Amino acid sequence: MDKILDIITAKITKGFIACEYDESYGKVTISNRPDLCDFQCNGALAAAKKYKKAPMMIATDVLEKIKDDPDFESVEAVNPGFLNIRISNTFLADYANEMASSEKLGLALVKEPKKIVIDYGGPNVAKPLHVGHLRSAIIGESIKRNARFLGHDIIGDIHLGDWGLQMGLIITELQERQPSLVYFDDEYKGDYPKEPPFTISELEEIYPTASKKSKEDDDYKERAMTATLNLQQGKPGYRALWQHILNVSVSDLKKNYEKLKVDFDLWNGESTVQEVIPPMVKRLKDEGYAHESEGALVVDVAREDDTKEIPPCMILKSDGASLYNTTDLATITERVRLYNPNQIIYVVDKRQSLYFEQIFRCARKTKMVTDDTQLDFVGFGTMNGKDGKPFKTRAGGVMRLESLLNEIDEGMYKKINENESMSEAEARDTSKKVALAAIKYGDLSNQATKDYIFDIDKFTSFEGNTGPYILYTIVRIKSILEKYNATSTLPEDAKINPASNSVEKNLLLLLTRFNSVIENSFNELAPHKICAFIYEIANEFNHFYHETKILTQEDEEKKNGWICLLNLTKSVLETCIYILGFDAPEKM
Ligand code: ARG
């Protein structure tokens, strides 16, 4: 379906053309004065400059040509030259009915689907997931779902941190503890054991211990660096051990991401592209892009018109070791080779924005990507505690994602168990759903770049701009529909009636914006726009609900029309929360 704004814009544009003004002036926007009109066109003001006429004259000219359009309830030219449009209730109801009977609620799939790679999650192997990883996962998952819903071909890649010093640290610590393990025997020629010599909880304790030791003990650090180098150069025992670390860690990560309803098409990591690095470095040297600077190999990426300093992008350290940069560039090369994407999106902490600026510039300058490959950095802000400082445990440590989720699940379970007669299993399942909505909506409803305060009490509240409030609204609709269905069957030809009051009209005006919102939120990589949209719908629906006695209405046609309106409201809300990455329970 065409978007409602486009339909109205087309009508107004015709008016401008009929008066021999340029068609570009016919653009219509949603009114910011809903008390005066539903849509407005300000084109006459801009046209006035070009045609050297009073804007009001232009507006009146155009008005003459369009005022009899039956889809308008009214159009007015008002000072200083606006066109104020009220849409007819019949047009609006027809549009809503067409949405209700169309696939994807009438959203038109993109005409030219893009091939997109989205890089999100980015956890580091062997380190427990902490709340810092939450945002990337939540925002990335939502952007991915949004793109896919529009018909783009998008691949999600987790880009594991699985190759740096942390691996050498773990290997060193394992060697301290179990020096007789076969992995450390350089003479050993047989196969390595299939079972890992540690569990996930051991692994999670080993890393911080090793990291602490390396800070206090230079010799230990030296050994960890050597272990890293040996691993990278392919020492068989180290590689085998590394594979165990990766496997144990990845199966744990999968469990955690599953709880968050976040999933990845690719479980690639920094290690995946190691073979790509040497030929890439060679090319950069041969083609004159990279030069030596203080022993390191760098590519200059500064431009003359830069207003801030953009340091060169380092490709190799002075000891020849590769870095985070090297891996990211090699990953771009691989993504281009395998998928030839039109767009690559990175969802990473905004503190890495300068870093990505360097990477993007370097990739363009060295022709790793073509000029029309879109490279996007969605940099997100920090999740803070109520004290405004980065979110911590009560004891002041780094909050593990798992503990946070459990804490919220538990709190929600108490709340849900309080006022409902649900079975234990149902209450558990419901509280998980509501808790996830609380966390995800709490995050996504803020513009990604902003820091925000993770306020559990606020996010889990059933009132206000929260995930649970949205779910509560959906559950309310479900319960009315269930009551209706218990005694009646909706006739095949039932449909939404033209609005009989302003509340109904407002609800319909909102619902019919669905396709615009879904398109814009992806184009602007801004899931918070979907949150704002459904919050408005939930408010307007609840307003409607309080003013309307739906089930006791005696006029069947009226009642059935409302049931259709409820169905559409429910579909729009459910589709939107699906894109945001959570779903609604049956009761709550
Ligand atoms: N592992 C990194 C970190 O924890 C994030 C990776 C982000 N993605 C990327 N392609 N660099 O900071």
From TrEMBL:
Enzyme class: ligase
SUPFAM superfamilies (UniProt xref): Anticodon-binding domain of a subclass of class I aminoacyl-tRNA synthetases, Arginyl-tRNA synthetase (ArgRS), N-terminal 'additional' domain, Nucleotidylyl transferase
Every DALR anticodon binding domain range: 470-588
Matching CDD domains: ArgRS_core
Record flagged with keyword Amino-acid biosynthesis: no
Example of a GO cellular component annotation carried by this entry: cytoplasm
A GO MF label: arginine-tRNA ligase activity
Location within or outside the cell: Cytoplasm
Pfam families referenced in this protein's UniProt entry, alphabetically: Arg_tRNA_synt_N, DALR_1, tRNA-synt_1d
Intervals of motif 'HIGH' region: 123-133
Gene3D superfamilies from the UniProt entry: Arginyl tRNA synthetase N-terminal domain (3.30.1360.70), HUPs (3.40.50.620), Isoleucyl-tRNA Synthetase, Domain 1 (1.10.730.10)
Domain Arginyl tRNA synthetase N-terminal: 2-87
EC numbers on record: 6.1.1.19
PANTHER family noted in UniProt: ARGININE--TRNA LIGASE, MITOCHONDRIAL-RELATED (PTHR11956:SF11), ARGINYL-TRNA SYNTHETASE (PTHR11956)
Family: Belongs to the class-I aminoacyl-tRNA synthetase family.
HAMAP family assigned: Arg_tRNA_synth
Complex and partners: Monomer.
Protein name in the entry: Arginine--tRNA ligase
Native species: Acetitomaculum ruminis DSM 5522
Gene giving rise to this polypeptide: argS
